[in-house]
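Before the break, one more example. Copy the sequence into your notebook; we will annotate it together after we see the structure.
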Amino acid sequence: MGTPRKQRGHIEERSNGTFRAVVSAGTDPFTGKRVFLKETYGTYDEAEVGLTELLYKVDKGKVDKGKLTVMDVLDKYRAVVDPKQKRRTKVRRDQLIRDYLEPRFGGDFKAAKVRAEMLENYYALLQVCRYNAELRVNHKAKDHTCEPFANSSIRAIHFILTAAFSRAVKWEYLPVNQPALAEPPEFEQGMPDPPSPEELAPVINEGWRDLPWGMFLWLTMLSASRRGEMCVLRWTDIDWKRGVIMVERAGDQYAGQVEEITTKRKQQKRLGLDAYTMELLTMYREYCERQCRRLGVKLRRDAFLFSSQPDFSDALKPNTATQRYRRLAKRNGLRSTRLHSIRHYSATELLGAGVDLRAVQGRLGHTQGSTTLRFYTAWLERTDNAAAEVLANSIPKPDFAARTPRHAWEVLTATLRADIESGKYQVDSELPFARDLATEHNVSVGTVSRATAELKNLGLIEAKQYRRARVIRQYIPPVAVDEAG
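Here is what the structure looks like once it is written out:
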């Protein structure tokens, strides 16, 4: 006689008269506990049908692992993607999980309970105050100041959840990717606000008081490179014969150390340098060699251009450059104190000078020219004025004289203008008093004043306070000239 099969599911009657179908779905891979699927029905017959459906789900592997928590999903996701992501990406991702997801969805919060509506409400709370990541926040406390969380950071949280839950669905731990159904806040495109050449001049002048710092700012503006790319620039990256600088690496600062990594999108740039910049680099190299000789060492061939060490053995820390520029910009009253605004300045000035978009795109290291136009160029007053001149010269000029008068003051202006042109009022003669003109033409004195002001604008009369208007010239219509001259 064979061993009886273990019962996989059953129907139990509840105290309120309903029936519940219960099916064993195996063991949860994370917690090691048994997982049960439960559905409640109104009648016993409905529960039998539901029991069959639940058994079918278990057999096909389409089962909701009810014990799986949100943090379990995130941990499993991180274990898979960690080898593929850069350190900076992982640090930012883990910080968002630690500060904004774990306080709300940590502990025993089940992944199956996450709903799109719940996430959208949470995003809305973060837009009001970033401290709403905690479950209970006293916004009326004296020491509390609400700080709205940036939409870009909320979108980053949303994409982390979406990616993690997408893996869980692929691995058949969850039936639906609920975060993917939620709608994150709209992307807020910041308006670039680079300094103008006039605003940047005192910053550069002060920067040149320290030759390495001045050279760093000059080369950053000229090459439009990112701060990490400039910090790990070596003397071997300069082609002295061709006057070219090669940007092939970037610097990533973490835990006080600078690691050389690939550039953003793994691009390599060869940027041309002008003769004056090459002279500055020659002078700066001599400065570095003299400094190393005073230390009793020789400047290494592959030494860094910019360093916090006197022998240029270590790369300059990107955060150090950012903080120093911020202090410098504040002292000189710049609107934007971000070092990154220099890239905006370079892109704006190049495009404003008429440089081809593809050349500017390549210099900044963008894969698409639309990125350069959307994020790295600002409105230029001189370019806008030039555009206004072009449009003003191309649009047909209005002929106000040919327009049919509509208002009372326009009719009176046309009448008086005709009288002046016909000779009724000669040059140096005076027009009647305003009250007499008002009576003659059956209009108000204000209408006469408006018409007189228009004739003055046309240069036909001279009008002064407490004096009658005097005709200074008669209108002479332009003479048409044929093509023969």
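The domain at 70-181 is CATH 1.10.150 (DNA polymerase; domain 1). Residues 478-485 have pLDDT under 50 and may be disordered. Try to locate both features in your own notes.
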